[in-house]
From TrEMBL:
InterPro entries registered for this protein in UniProt: Hydgase_Ni_incorp_HypA/HybF_CS, HypA/HybF
The entry's keywords: Metal-binding, Nickel, Zinc
Residues where Ni(2+) binds: H2
Biological role: Involved in the maturation of [NiFe] hydrogenases. Required for nickel insertion into the metal center of the hydrogenase.
Protein name: Hydrogenase maturation factor HypA
Binding site for Zn(2+): C73, C76, C89, C92
Family per record: Belongs to the HypA/HybF family.
Pfam families on file: HypA
Species this protein is from: Azospirillum endophyticum
């Protein structure tokens, strides 16, 4: 489960930012997990619950947005949104698609005290 290592790195990032900006507690975290990021949001929440114990983020809530996957369709020469990486173009049914977005995991917002 690579979500656990992602959450460990997220916690390290929070600790670095805590030292840099002198906050002591994280109350809310908002993440964007692209649909092509190969990250299960439920597994990510579970992993975060495990790693946050006895840390500055122990009581933080986690909100996860899932931006759509974007692809460039070679057949209709347009950017399209698709639900999964293997889905055909919703307009023309073409399969010659190149990913253009939705592969990132991003810390969008942080509320601290």
């Amino acid at each position: 489960m690579h979500e656990l290592s992602l959450c460990e790195r997220l916690l390290e990032l929070l600790q670095e930012e805590s030292r840099r900006h002198a906050f002591h507690r994280v109350t809310r975290i908002r993440l964007a997990v692209g649909r092509f990021a190969c990250v299960d949001p439920d597994a990510l929440r579970f992993a975060f619950d495990v790693v946050r114990r006895d840390t500055l983020a122990e009581e933080a809530t986690v909100d996860i947005d899932q931006p759509p996957g974007l692809v460039w369709c070679e057949d209709c020469a347009r950017e399209r949104q698709v639900p999964t990486r293997l889905a055909p173009c919703p307009a023309c049914g073409g399969l010659r698609l190149s990913p253009r977005g939705g592969e990132d995991l991003t810390l969008v917002e942080l509320e601290v005290a």
